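PROTEIN DESIGN WORKSHEET
SECTION A - STRUCTURE
LENGTH: 199
TOKENS:
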């Protein structure tokens, strides 16, 4: 599993945090495996995906052959490449949640739920008339519900065990962005909505 001491592009276990312990201060060093400069090619998900594709299409060659472990196994390392898949698991330590009044594109009153993470910010617009339905879903064991928009796309809220997946895209099978709410973030989301007094 990828952690903050792996290269975001190739998944190589570096032994240090290329983006710092807080995951937001790049070291600007070079990955000895794929040649990524931390803070440059790996600063956005699109950048990670492009650098990863170039590295793999180029034969996954080592940037610094002297650093290549004798028992290096590309298949094991590829299992560490999760960061650019737009599937981000968040927790209350690295995410701030805020709410504000907003409008849907058609002018309907809405509540904006904003998830702020060191890597991204997600703005989710929920029509005011559907807030109760969302809270009911978050507090229940229902499998999924379609409520709200983000990036001009529909949002499908899908339950997977204790977690809730926020799937942004065409449908809950063919989504473009996935954010994962852990139980603590589900509670924090509900509390944030209720405290806002916006519905």
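SECTION B - SEQUENCE
RESIDUE ASSIGNMENT:
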């Amino acid at each position: 599993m990828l952690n903050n001491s792996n290269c975001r592009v190739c998944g190589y276990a570096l032994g240090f945090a290329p983006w710092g312990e807080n995951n937001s201060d790049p070291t600007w060093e070079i990955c000895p495996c794929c040649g990524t400069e931390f803070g440059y090619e790996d600063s956005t998900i699109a950048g990670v995906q492009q650098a990863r594709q170039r590295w793999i299409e180029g034969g996954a060659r080592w940037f610094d052959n002297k650093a290549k472990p004798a028992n290096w196994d590309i298949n094991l390392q590829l299992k560490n490449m999760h960061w650019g898949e737009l599937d981000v698991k968040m927790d209350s330590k690295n995410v701030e949640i805020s709410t504000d009044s907003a409008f849907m594109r058609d002018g309907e009153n809405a509540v904006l739920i904003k998830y702020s993470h060191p890597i991204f910010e997600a703005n989710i617009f929920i029509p005011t008339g559907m807030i109760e339905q969302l809270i009911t879903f978050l507090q229940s064991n229902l499998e999924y519900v379609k409520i709200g928009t983000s990036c001009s796309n529909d949002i499908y809220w899908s339950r997977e065990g204790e977690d809730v997946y926020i799937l942004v895209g065409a449908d809950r099978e063919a989504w473009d962005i996935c954010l994962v709410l852990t139980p603590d973030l589900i509670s924090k989301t509900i509390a944030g909505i209720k405290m806002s007094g916006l519905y």
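SECTION C - NOTES
The longest helix spans residues 183-196.
DSSP finds four helices and eight strands in the chain.
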